[in-house]
Amino acid sequence: MKAITVEPLQRESARVEDVPEPDPRNGSVLVEAIAVGVCGTDVEIVEGKYGWAPPGQTRLVLGHESLGRVVDPGPAGRFRAGEFVVGIVRRPDPVPCPNCAVGEWDMCRNGQYTERGIKAIDGFMSERWRIEPDYAMRVDPSLGILGVLLEPTTVVAKAWEQVVAVGHRAFWEPRSVLVTGAGPIGLLAALVAKQHGLDVHVLDRVKTGHKPELVRALGATFHSGHVNDVPVEPDVIIECTGVGQVIADAMRKVGAGGILCLTGVGSGGRTTGFSTADVAAEMVLQNNVIIGSVNANKRHWYKAGEVLSRADRGWLSRLITRREAPEQFMSALHRSPDDIKVVVQFADV
Ligand SMILES: [Zn+2]
């Protein structure tokens, strides 16, 4: 079967190739791939900056934002042929750490977890893939190809749960949310905040195009420019850019008793030049909290499915700005400024 593979940490090693049928050790449920979303992590892996092949192999099948159709449900009988499923990405570490031991692999403490398409387990960019029944999530069939948005939505579902958990340390009735960055994660974060009835503001560098249109179609307010220019004092900021200056500005922008949730992963950039003690003093005097949030456990996968089920299908479909054939995966990896989510499509829905 056809698969998109890469030799981790080797630049320009990605290719479409014929590989054996999926390894039965990856699970008893056999799935036909429909589509796989592309994100920044895939780009980093293809650029040779990140990624691990499965033990004893040199190449890794790429892809962690899956959508597929069950071909053979296997002996467990939990699925039926033809059902739409998405594969959970992370597997608990083998030690396991206390969090992995209770199913909170997203909070893994020792970093020995594995991840489909990223770390030591083949991903989903192959014509067929296998999955363990416990790690296959059934998706609302009315979503069709939009089910491929489930994985990025889990990231936001977890981040929101973290924000709420911190919020309830005190009397907390948030009114306004600022999302920095209008990529897929930022737009899905705005969707979740709107579903909670909040006044939602989204900031991005762009001034025109899909992103401002999608923010406005959601009933949220779009801003272009600097965090400081947003004319609200947000109770919550969901940071989705990973850009140092935006993060520094967000730390100062969040209102008293506010929560800044960091979801973006960046590196380097210019130092922002503010005094750590000054920022810390503001945080102390305002009871502010900064939290980092990554990945998602099964509860968040379930919640993300509920978010997508409730969302307007027309709005969600505008998040997928391009679909590419597997042979064109390199052009799927090169996103234009107006691209939001690009998917590699293996089969019709
Ligand atoms: Zn762990």
Describe this structure in words.
There is one protein chain. The chain contains ten helices and 19 strands. It is an alpha/beta fold and 349 residues long. The strands form four sheets. Strands 3, 5, 6, 10, 11, 18 and 19 form a seven-stranded mixed beta sheet that branches. It has a six-stranded parallel beta sheet with strand order 14-13-12-15-16-17, sandwiched between helices. A three-stranded antiparallel beta sheet has the order 2-1-4, with no helix packed on it. Helix 3 packs across helix 4 (184-195) and helix 3 (150-167) crosses helix 8 (298-310). Bound molecules: zinc ion (ZN). Zinc ion is lined by residues 92-93, 96-97, 99-100, 108-110, 113.
What are the key terms here?
about 350 residues, alpha/beta, 7-stranded mixed β-sheet, 6-stranded parallel β-sheet, about 25% helix, globular, binds zinc ion
Low-confidence stretches: none
Hetero groups: zinc ion
Order of helices and strands: EEEHEEEEHEEEEHEHEHEEHEHEHHEHE
Shape by Cα distribution: globular
Distance between the termini: 19 Å
**Cα-based radius of gyration, to the nearest Å:** 20 Å
Number of helices: 10
Share in helix: 25-40%
Mean pLDDT: 96
**Which percent band covers the strand fraction?**
15-25%
Main beta-sheet strand count, sense and barrel state: 7 strands, mixed
